[in-house]
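re: ur question from yesterday

yeah so i grabbed the chain u mentioned. its 305 aa long if i counted rite. heres the sequnce exactly as i have it in my notes:
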Amino acid sequence: MSKQCLAIAATLLLLASGAVASSGSGKNGGGGDSGGGGNTPPVVGTAADVCSVVAPQGAPVTVTPGTILARDTFGYGPQLLRPSGGNGSLKPVSIHTGLNGFWAEQPCSNSAVWMSASGSGVQSWNFSATSTDPKEPPSAMMPAGLGNGAMTVFLDGESVPEFPTALLPLQAPSIPYEVSAEIVFVTPNPGTWLGLGFTSSNALNRNFEAAGQAWMRVRRDSLFDSLAGTVELHTNGLAGPSASASVALTPFSTLRVQYDPLTRTVNGYYNDILVGTLSYDASSSRFVGFEGAGTLDNFVVKASD
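ran it thru and got these structure tokens back, copy pasting raw so excuse formatting
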């Protein structure tokens, strides 16, 4: 059986399992799902209309423990439209649509515009759909009946990973803060992984290994065992202090990186279990985001509780 046939067979198996109901890709993609979603979307015609529905609170004025700084459930938007670019022009969203240029769901403003690789023939982060994320609160950003919005880079069996990165500008508070997301699926190609964290670079490929200031990644230990994995906590790319642990790769497992600017310490958690505590000054971070290959959901940046 050819590598392409093996890749197709693996994709069909994932779709049948229900974790990845549909996946977008820089080069390939899948179909839709009919469960989950939010309420019937209102009529929208401008970015202000969308933001009044999905993020009526706007950007936080005062940051206290628990304050959400940025969030994206990766829903397709009311009436399948999301604000984009500097002026918030509404652009249609569907499976396969690239993330680059869209406003983050919260704060829903041009101060938080996603940056990601884009263009024909490049591996990139694209809107997709999965089964219901049990850890994600309901969102008006996802219309009813279209499944659960997510982000996916899916590689066929012959693809060499390019490790595309998706970034938001980071406006770091003076109190401890963190980034988290649910890892739905890590692509089983050799050498691939999926991670998130804080970085000093705006590079849109292979960012974290070189410039990640405080970041985590998870990888499969075997191409043939979907449950056995390793999670790693890193600083200063791969050059700083690090920690790792063996984990079970269950769908919708949470990666969380926390940084305390007062004590200059980095904590990494996998499903709320501490992976490591590292001493490192990550204050040079200017961006926050995710990188790798697979499917990710419920991206949240907040002041730590």
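noticed a couple things. The CA atoms of residues 51 and 108 lie 6 Å apart. also The first strand starts at residue 68 and ends at 72.
anyway ttyl
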